[in-house]
Specification:
Blueprint (H helix, E strand, L loop, with lengths): L2 H27 L2 H6 L15 H24 L3 E8 L5 H9 L7 E4 L6 H4 L16 E6 L8 H4 L5 H20 L2 E9 L2 H12 L10 H8 L1 H15 L6 E5 L3 H14 L38
Parallel strand pairs: 1-3, 1-4, 2-3, 4-5
């Protein structure tokens, strides 16, 4: 491709990334009424694969309605659903998780993103720090990285030894079989992107003050060790892909397609249907003749700057 072509493609990708950031705000307010009022020009910035913004919003909203139906089914039938989101840094795990949880009840569906283990936790059985976060009946738990840290970042960065890794590979299939036998529905996703795409996303985060916090020293080091992570991923998928808890790979170069494909697939993993609800009736407010509202002192108000 010519230099001009490369430049044009890069400019287009930067536009897409900026549009995606703006879309996050729009998605928060998105509903059928707003969707119908979106101007025709909203689709001017398309992804390379051709999903325009309005089509993306329409399908995302439809899938999120289905997620609410799934949530109701999980609650009504006391199901326990665990979804693992793994993949390379900047592969789109966080964006997918955000779209899954965006319209769900946080008391039903929660995200677990554990920090680095403490000194005490490092002396525990490896899976011990994850077990307290597993769901009870009627709950959905999304792990933004999980026990597979041992097969990835801990292994590549030297935070554990070869014996620790080998013990993990021996133990994790039995651990996951135990979870499934206990009634947990376990779904495992690996988000995959290309070398060039990760490089571009890292560069864009470096130059975006609103996203620089997403780049930790560990993330930057993962860029240098791309091939080491590839080898670790390949062995991890080969040794932990079991019938009771298989892996599913999400192609993540196109963020919008990745999110839609992941949510659509997740909805297929749990058979569900509508749950009957009692009609919601807003009660009349009681009026007390002897009640007088006490004025709020002016000094308690937040200054009206805007």
């Amino acid at each position: 491709m010519s230099t001009v072509g490369n430049g044009t493609n890069l400019e287009r990708r930067i536009q897409e990334e900026l549009a995606d950031s703006i879309d996050e705000e729009l998605e928060q307010e998105l509903g059928d009424d707003l969707l119908a009022r979106l101007p025709e020009g909203i689709a001017d910035i398309d992804s390379p694969q051709g999903i325009d913004r309005k089509a993306y919003f329409t399908e995302l909203l439809r899938l999120q309605r289905e997620l609410i139906r799934l949530q109701d089914w999980v609650v009504a039938h006391k199901l326990k659903l665990v979804v693992l989101f793994e993949g390379r840094d900047s592969a789109g795990k966080g964006g997918a998780i955000k779209r899954v949880t965006q319209r769900l009840n946080p008391r039903v569906c929660r995200t677990v993103a554990l920090p680095a283990p403490t000194e005490r936790e490092r002396s525990q059985w490896y899976f011990q720090r994850y077990v307290p976060h597993l769901p009870a009946g009627g709950e959905i738990v999304l792990f933004d990285r999980s026990w597979y840290n041992r097969a990835g970042v801990e292994r590549v960065m030297g935070f554990c030894g070869p014996d620790d890794v080998e013990e993990f590979f021996r133990t994790v299939p039995e651990f996951e079989r135990m979870l499934v036998r206990s009634g947990i529905i376990l779904v495992k996703y690996w988000f995959s992107i290309t070398d060039a795409e990760q490089n571009l996303r890292f560069l864009m985060r470096i130059h975006d003050p609103l996203k620089q916090w997403k780049l930790s020293p560990m993330d930057l080091e993962s860029r240098r060790r791309w091939e080491d992570y590839t080898k670790a991923k390949e062995e991890m998928l080969a040794r932990t892909h079991i019938p009771e808890a298989r892996w599913w790979v999400v192609e993540g170069n196109d963020k919008r397609r990745a999110r839609l494909n992941c949510i659509h697939h997740l909805l297929q993993q749990v058979p569900y249907s509508d749950v009957a609800h009692q009609p919601i009736i807003l009660p009349q407010r009681d009026h007390k003749p002897d009640y007088a509202r006490t004025p709020v002192p002016p000094e308690l108000h937040v200054p009206a700057v805007y």
